[in-house]
Amino acid sequence: MLDKTGIAKRIAKEVKNGYYVNLGIGIPTLVANYVRNDIEVEFQSENGVLGMGPFPFEGEEDADVINAGKQTITTLPGASFFDSALSFSMIRGKHVDLTILGAMEVAENGDIANWKIPGKMVKGMGGAMDLVASAENIIVAMMHTNKAGESKLLKKCTLPLTGVGCVKKIVTNLAVIEVTNKGFKLLERAPGISVEEIKKATEGTLIIEGDIPEMVI
Amino acid sequence: MINKKVANVEDALKGVTDNITCMVGGFGLSGIPENAIAQLVKLGVKGLTCISNNAGVDDFGLGLLLQKHQIKKMISSYVGENDEFERQMLSGELDVELIPQGTLAERCRAAQAGFPAIYTPAGYGTEVAEGKETREFDGKMYVLEHAFKADFAFVKAWKGDAVGNLVFKGTARNFNPVMCGAAKITVAEVEELVPLGTLDPNQIHIPGIFVQRIFQGKNYEKRIEQRTVRARN
């Protein structure tokens, strides 16, 4: 089974040379640490920066340079700042190549829910609805089940939706799954995890074809 | 020269009354108009509708107005990190409209640019689109979202001059430029009000035509919400 870092490491392998990438808050933020350093990638943050670098050294934090998680960051040579409208022009206009975000639920048709638990958690969608409505390539990073042990890969989402039919790939602590028009297609198993265990943890239709290889991280 | 400079925050917020709708720039606590918010608290105006990406934290930013129950309605994309906000929202004291962040930006920009509404793919098929007009373009569905109508826009820039030209710094730019000229009166506060002719016309982010009042701000706290650093080694 993978931990959060393991999920981030596996997703990092999906990042290709020349990609502009938007990372959501949580596990997706960790992905930046594991991208191969022999490829060129730029990270976009929806609050208005392209070319994000690592966290600043202590004493060099700048209140005017933060990411979408409101964390202090630095910029790399070639970085740019822009306003919120232009930032979402990049996102809705499909100029960002890859979006990686977390989710509470994903349905077998690619629907995603990640912004609201009625009566409990109402923090808002931030930029998630804009991201999922437009991105061609969306990878969800999440745990396969919730804290109560219930599957987060469902036939149909039960929580209010963030977007419809948009998720392409899911990387969990148990598996790599592709969303196809016939349901969840199992691509890879996490180290030490059997197909049976993944089947048990998946409520939605799980397509298993041939031998399922173990992830290489 | 068309002079937009006013002496202080008191003059800048003249005409602000109860029940107005105002846009407030900033992302989290970055780039918020600290002086204008402090003045709204001082004026004690009530029944405000605030269009702002976030709602501040408990003791800073728009959180200061929430503490005094001055806000009637918030239109935002993300409102975490604020316990008082959550309490007022769940108890029904505060009316909250949550909308996608890109839609928030574009509804400001539409007001600035003279568009009555825009079509966006964001929120289609979700509760955000309920009751709204939708339309198909090239096989994809879009939601009609209307331009905001606001009385005041309170924005904060890094540098500005007496004609209202503005230059922003870093990610403190965020929603500030798209709110300029998107309300009846745009009030800009700046960290540095520089002499006319000092700003390079090639480097102006917002031309003064979008700004009605500008003033030299003071005592900026510029709080950091999530101070994250890495070790030196």
TrEMBL record, chain A:
Belongs to the 3-oxoacid CoA-transferase subunit B family. It comes from the Bacteria. SUPFAM superfamilies: NagB/RpiA/CoA transferase-like (SSF100950). Keywords: Transferase. GO terms for molecular function: transferase activity. NCBIfam families: pcaJ_scoB_fam (TIGR02428). The keyword Phosphoprotein does not apply. This is CoA transferase subunit B. PROSITE patterns: COA_TRANSF_2. It comes from Mariniflexile gromovii. Pfam families: CoA_trans (PF01144). Gene3D superfamilies: Glutaconate Coenzyme A-transferase. InterPro entries: 3-oxoacid_CoA-transf_B, CoA_trans_fam_I, CoA_transf_AS, NagB/RpiA_transferase-like.
Automatic annotation (TrEMBL), chain B:
It holds the Pfam family CoA_trans. PANTHER family: ACETATE COA-TRANSFERASE SUBUNIT ALPHA, KETOACID-COENZYME A TRANSFERASE. Keywords: Transferase. This is CoA transferase subunit A. The keyword Transferase applies. Gene3D superfamilies: Glutaconate Coenzyme A-transferase. GO terms for molecular function: transferase activity. It comes from the Bacteria.
